[in-house]
Design a protein that fits this description.
about 70 residues; globular; 2 helices
């Protein structure tokens, strides 16, 4: 795969860095993952809660009770 540079605003980078820090990875690693997920067509409903971006919910509240 060819390496290319991307430009993002300072505000977007701060948000990316905050998400990455919460996950214990670098901003670059988080961006790589986001791009790979988008390329693969990952849908939030297909991902477990720990794999979703911060602030995104897959609809499973995790309590095991039926509503």
């Amino acid at each position: 795969m060819e390496e290319v540079s991307v430009s993002i605003s300072a505000e977007q980078y701060e948000r990316l860095a905050a998400i990455a820090a919460a996950r214990g990875v670098s901003a670059e690693a988080q961006l790589d993952r986001l791009i790979e997920d988008a390329y693969a067509g990952a849908e939030p409903a297909d991902l477990g809660a720990e794999e979703l971006p911060l602030g995104v919910c897959n609809g499973d509240d995790g309590d095991g009770a039926d509503d």
